[in-house]
Amino acid sequence: MNFFRGVMGGQAAGPQPSGADTIQKLCDRVASSTLLEDRRDAVRALKSLSKKYRMEVGTQAMDHLINILQTDRSDSEILGYALDTLYNIICNDEEEEQDENSQKQADDLGAQFTDTFIQDPEHVTLLLTLLEEFDFHVRWPGVKLLTALLKNQGVQVQGIILVSPMGVSRLMDLLADSREVIRNDGLLLLQQLTKSNAAIQKIVAFENAFERLLDIITEEGSSDGGIVVEDCLLLLLNLLKNNSSNQNFFKEGSYIQRMKPWFEVGDDNSGWSAQKVTNLHLMLQLVRVMVSPVNSPGATASCQKSMYQCGLLQQLCTILMATGVPADILTETINTVSEVIRGSQVNQDYFASVNAPSNPPRPAIVVLLMSMVNERQPFVLRCAVLYCFQCFLYKNQKGQGEIVATLLPSTIDANSISAGQLLCGGLFSADSLSNWCAAVALAHALQDNLTQKEQLLRVQLATSLGKPPVSLLQQCTNILSQGSKVQTRVGLLMLLCTWINNCPIAVTHFLHNQENVPFLTAQISENLGEDERLVQGLCALLLGICIYYNDNSLENYTKEKLKQLIEKRIGKENFVEKLGFITKHELYSRAAQKPQPVFPSPEQMLFDHEFTKLVKELEGVITKAVHKSSEEEKKEEEVKKTLEQHDNIVTQYKELIREQDAQIQELKEQVESVSSQNEQMQTTITQQLSQIQQHKDQYNILKLKLGKENQSQSNSQGDSSQMNGLQTEELTQLREEVEELRKQHALLQTQLCDKDSLINTLRSEVTQTSEETASGSDNTELLKDMEALNSQIHSQSTEISQLKMERQDLLRRLEAESSDTGLSSDGSLDSTKMADLESRLAAQTSETEKLKDEASSLSKGRAELEQQLASATSTVAILQTEKAKLQTELQESKKEQDDLLMLLADQDQKIHSLKQKLKDLGETVEDEDDLDAKELTDEDDEEDEEDED
Predict the structure, then answer these.
(1) Do the Cβ atoms of 379 and 602 come closer than 8 Å?
(2) Cβ atoms 473, 424 nearer than 8 A
(3) In terms of DSSP H, where are the helices of 471-608?
(4) Which of 96, 659, 768, 789 is the most exposed place for a label (fewest CB within 10 A)?
(5) With contact defined as beta carbons under 8 Å apart, do 471 and 457 qualify?
(6) Could you report the per-residue pLDDT of 600-630, keeping only the tens digit for each?
(7) CA distances (Å), 227 to each of 224, 232, 274, 282, 842, in order?
(8) Pairing state between β 362-363 and 470-471
(9) Residue 783 pLDDT greater than 60, yes or no
């Protein structure tokens, strides 16, 4: 212990040891001492020397200190001393009072010791493990040491933490620490950890960082809070900026709604603290990160919608119109509102309805434009107002029309100040910056809006008393020719280029002034200084637009004559070279990077972002148009005309196809309705057939019963004589029924002939349509018509099958009647029961008549369907590939016809067999001729008997 007393300042005799010797002895003591107390004292002594002898402690003691962290985990005090010592030798923050060279050496020393520490990734992993210790003396110096490592070698340390198991999660636990010192230093640690590393940013976000940070901001008082709120906002900016995944997670988690209370300001806004200004500035930046133009359009639109729905936009507009707000906060609020409404029609409409709290109330747009054209306002504020006006008009044709309408003679109100009046005032004021801002703002009112470009040609300006008014277009060219400041001329030339671009009427108006073209050619052909090169390039662009969008309506300034003028006065190569001055300008690329106009000084405010896109689009086509000969232009015009004609033909064919589609759809609906009717008829026929079968079954049962009764009464002679009389009457009825069956047979043959003629007609139509197939051009339409024809054939096949079913039913009835005839010849039947049978037979006959009527109505429906088929097949052709299928179906129909003929032959055979049975029973069955002859003979006999009487 005497040794440590000497080291720590005790008086000792003899020469004092140097710092390096002392540190060496202390390191030996740390390495060799077996007592924990001795090692602790030695480490405490190294800590006290580490700031003064940073180099020596770092080179000699680092390995011993890391070994202490690994071996003495049980003693929090020695761990704290070791961590503090490592922090002192790695951190560079203590060198603030030194000069620049000393500070640079200290930074290099800290980076060198950091490299030494992280050579073994296990050292960082060990440090992450120590952060789990709850002891304040271990956790706090561990947080500070890891923060210092990230500051010195952030990328390497981030990589180690990223691959360490639960590394980020351990650091996120620091935000939940109840000790504010550790929580606040944990915020600083996470700021360093999340810099420029999207993977770690995503992990931190999904570890519920947004919820925790917003809770801390609320607890600390939001915008009125202290430095902790600022640290939370900086960490949120790290997590959200240029990270679409985290931005989407922030929006989907409804965290945008929690930002609204941040911007609630009172009536008295004087005396804001510097910290409140800083906090609110960061909060506005956070809103802008979510709706930045560099984000994907879909994500930006979704965030804009959420901000309007939750009232955040309304709150920002309240700050915009409030009094006493600091200038830098007002400027940033204007920029924030600009990006919240940019490209969002709903938000733009709301912003147009906002009024300033003045008497009388004025629109917020008018109040902002008054600041823009006021040269006494700060430069950054004027730039912010211009950006707000540009965002209000971005993809907002309604807003563009409203701005241009304030310039038209019919809408000008002399008692109030309008946006158009302010823009005209700024356009022709003595301040060149106001000229430029007003010209760019007016150009945005015309951007991609042909209607407003033509409307603006109607604007007339009164220059002085007693002189006629001149158009706005003419006044712009007049000021341009007067040789004003470069900034003014650049703004006017950008306005003119935007105005006449893609507007042949505006080009004609511009060329109608005889002084404009000579002025442009003179400007382009002169050899001027560096400052005038940009003006020359813009004049070349303006003249090139006059060539490219020229409709040749002015005889003196046609495309060809303007190109000849360029070739004679300027030279084509010189013209193209001057045109290239625009994109070669140093300020052009800066303006092309982002939409917001940000310039270091007013003198550098020359290019507008949207105009740079227009130059990029037109430079190539103008160069080609200037070099192009008249013959090439004629060829291009012919090609355009040919393409237009081709487009017209295609449009006509499309309309024809649509009409045919509609017709085919109607035919399909008709076919479906007929098919449904057919199905209903088939269902009805099936039901009636089942009823007939039931009647037949009942009739057969009754026959059996009557047969038994006849056997029991066979001995009764009186009954037999009665039956003989009844038998004669039944034979007469049977003859009539046979005659009826013959008529039905003839009717079936007639229907069969009709089917033959229909099949032949279809076959001829198939042949005719197959010949027309070669001229068909639309295969898709042909396939649809083929399907319709197939459905017609299917319906016809269904009708044939129905007729077959009717024929079979007739055959069954013939058999039943023949069996009835045989039964009647056997003997006596009861007259009452026989009458019952006759009534049943009459009912069956009536049902047969009903079936015939239904068949005839179905044939009429089929005839109508055939007419529809004929009208459809007359407009469209049938594919050759489907012809074979149709012929196959026709062959099948032919086979069915042959089968029907065979069945009819069988029917004739059965009728013949019935006659034979009657003959076998002793009855005389004669043909039609024999019956007629017999009737004549009977009549002669009756006449003879009358004569005898």
Answers:
(1) yes
(2) no
(3) 472-481, 486-500, 504-512, 516-525, 530-548, 559-569, 572-579, 581-584, 586-593
(4) 96
(5) yes
(6) 899 999 999 999 999 999 999 999 888 876 6
(7) 10, 9, 11, 12, 110
(8) unpaired
(9) no
